[in-house]
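[job 4471] stage=fold_predict status=RUNNING
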Amino acid sequence: MRLQGKVAIVTGGGSGFGEGIVKRFAEEGAAVVIGDINIDAARRVTEAVAKQDGRATAVLCDVSKGADFARLVGTAEKQFGGLDIVVNNAGVPQRNGPMGDTDEAAFDRIYAVNVKSLYWSAIHAVPALRRRGGGVIITTASTAGVRPRPGLVWYNGSKGAAITITKTMAVELAPHKIRVCALNPVAGDTPMLAEFMGGADTPEVRARFLSTIPLGRMSQPRDIANAALYLASDEADFITGVCLEVDGGRCV
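[job 4471] inference complete, writing structure tokens
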């Protein structure tokens, strides 16, 4: 097993890409702390992992709050004995539309969840990783931060920030044997998809999205989970600062 003996935190692990990552990590031997603002969803995933003889626990967490992130790290150390991997996956979308249509509250929430959470992750998780002698941080960014398009200005900016933060942290934390990478998914069939489509998930809108992806489909949780597994594993022990596009050729 590629993550045998490892302990991971996955935020936003109750659905979508996060759920896929949790299940894949557990299959490969990791004990997983699932942080999610929807505790019922996190518990559902925990139960699914247990049925496959995996180890996971659910923790109510709003990643924009430092105390909540501290609780995730504390749970990993108290319940499973330490922390080796952090997947900053939780995120919120912007409804597709003109930049001026996004109100201040929505803007603040996008940056609190998509960007400030990375600060809290660093503040609380990095010391725990250092106590283990190193580890891995993986952030779910987006192709939106690489090839931005109109209609998602503020979301694009938040993911661009995530990519820059990833690269900078990778250099700063390298002496501590902490690798830092990001994943850049293309639009996926997740609960956030309708917002990216402007609130209407219709066959016509889907067809327009698909026309921009050379491999002809949206990303699936298994695509992101397999990429995260590789970056988290010892097979990638010389890889840091990478922002891996998992996008079917969208950014080519």
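[job 4471] summary: The first strand starts at residue 7 and ends at 11.
[job 4471] exit 0
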